[in-house]
Amino acid sequence: MEIFFDIDETEKGFLYEESMRMLRTNLQFSGSNLRVILFTSSIQDEGKSETSFQLAISFTKLDKKVLYIDADMRKSVFTTKHKISEEVQGLSQFLNGLNTEDIIYKTNIKNLNVVFAGPYAPNPAELLYDIKLDEFIKRQRLNYDYIIIDAPPLANIVDAAIIGRCVDGAVIVVKSATVSQRVVKKVKDQLEKVNCKIIGVVLNGVEMKKDSYHYKYYDYYSNKK
Predict the structure, then answer these.
(1) pLDDT in tens, 146-189
(2) From CA 22, how far away is CA 213, in angstroms rounded?
(3) Cα–Cα distance list, 130 to 96, 162, 169 (Å)
(4) CB 3.0–4.6 Å: which of 87, 145, 175, 182 could bond 46 by disulfide?
């Protein structure tokens, strides 16, 4: 089955696309061994899911094979947000015994495959501790240039830290003027406890001022079109 994503590249605008290219470039310059990347945040609605998915799409434009994994088995809205009407199986079912080939879906986006979260799991932390996850990620490293994992927020639950043992590094997404430094530091500490390398932080929801370089560049670019 092929999953269709309706992606309108003009909807985000030039500044967003430029920011995504910058994020992609920064990750590439962080080292060639950085191939399995976890995205998390402190709380819900900081934009980590959208950021991680758009990054996955951005990598495919470089002709990189990408596997995007929705690992939020508690409260995923990925299928709802992208209006996936097909009945799909996912990570929670795989960790409960489903075969690998049953959870990896091709998409209409060239070079992009996805793994959905699957039905709500009452015991996601216990499932994520299973060695099946380690073995799955290890096998998929052979098939993809990048694996992008969208994990649940880390301020109150430990799922992202558990997944952290399987990845090459983590990115923390922070929405501007939403969470305190203390809460973000708690997320950082949780990841460091499992020896998960923190690559950096993405600051979301920043209003661009008219006197900023990127705003002026966007204005020049728009007027040239």
Answers:
(1) 999 999 999 889 999 999 999 999 999 999 888 899 999 999 99
(2) 14
(3) 10, 10, 20
(4) 175
Q: Token match 């399995």: residue?
A: 36
Q: Helix axis angle, 48-60 relative to 14-29, nearest 10°?
A: 80
Residue 120: how many other CB atoms lie within 10 Å: 12
Is the distance from CB of 92 to CB of 121 less than 8 angstroms? yes
- Type of residue at 110: K
Give CA–CA dist 27/34, Å, rounded: 8
Q: Using one digit for the tens of pLDDT, what is the confidence trace for 103-151?
A: 999 999 999 999 999 999 889 999 999 999 999 999 999 999 999 999 9
Which pLDDT belongs to residue 209?
Answer: 55
Q: Which residues contact 205 (CB under 8 A, 6 or more apart)?
A: 47, 175, 176, 177, 178
Among 39, 53, 17, 44, residue whose Cα is nearest residue 171: 39
The residue-averaged pLDDT of 49-59 equals 96
**Whole-number Å distance between alpha carbons of 175 and 74:** 21
